[in-house]
């Protein structure tokens, strides 16, 4: 079993189009590049719903994520995507990596 966790943030593109989500994702990712414990992230686009996106970030541990999440920089660093969070569902979820091949 691994200590790694993955966070999924669910977003919906605004009427202006998916480029808004893509721009915000790239800007945020640049600011997070040297965040302790962050192993990486990906922008996922739904093949079912054209306006649906998810950002998957992988962290070395829950403790590393929690330290960043509770830190003073978190809110400012992720503000660009906050208006597009999918509020029709829980806008984010957290998963532990239980197995990998």
Automatic annotation (TrEMBL):
Pfam families: ABM (PF03992). Keywords: Monooxygenase, Oxidoreductase. Gene3D superfamilies: 3.30.70.100. It is an enzyme of class 1 (oxidoreductase). Signal peptide: none annotated. SUPFAM superfamilies: Dimeric alpha+beta barrel. Residues 4-97 form the ABM domain. This is Antibiotic biosynthesis monooxygenase. InterPro entries: ABM_dom, Dimeric_a/b-barrel.
